[in-house]
Design brief:
The structure is a single chain. The protein is α/β, with parallel strands linked by helices and 125 residues long. The chain is built from five helices and five strands. Helix 1 crosses helix 5. The longest helix has 12 residues. It is globular. The termini are close together. The model has no long low-confidence stretch (mean pLDDT 78).
Length: 125
């Protein structure tokens, strides 16, 4: 049975190729809204969660306060959580916040294998 990964990201167009790499090894679910995130968390137990901590404001997006979201939804999960963003300054701010021991950060980059390598590091194959 494949291990399950949840990717929480508001940029599904950015996720296409990296997700295809992950799907070769893992079962991958994507959530791009707060409603979808809640549904995914209620219906599945995940081995790993990647979350883009920058959800923009605007009519097309829901405002997700990542600190509050973490405290309410993710804090008590035992799986690793990776804050994953192409905003290095934002990641440096998150690294200073007191997250649980199961939380790490990863900068988005052009390397399609960055998610696969991080997943293998954290949960194996």
């Amino acid at each position: 049975m494949k291990k399950k990964i949840l990717i929480i990201d508001h940029e599904p167009e950015y996720q296409g190729r990296p997700i295809r790499f992950l799907e070769k090894i893992y079962e991958v679910k994507l959530a791009i809204s707060l409603n979808a995130i809640n549904n995914r968390l209620n219906e599945n137990k995940f081995d790993l969660i990647f979350i883009e901590p920058f959800f923009p404001y605007g009519k097309d997006y829901e405002d997700i306060n990542v600190w509050l979201f973490y405290d309410e939804k993710l804090k008590n999960l035992s799986c690793p959580i990776v804050l994953w963003s192409h905003h290095p300054i934002l990641l440096s701010v998150f690294e200073k916040y007191t997250w649980g021991e199961n939380v790490s950060t990863l900068e988005k980059n052009a390397d399609d294998n960055c998610l696969v390598e991080k997943a293998k590091e954290l949960i194996g194959v």
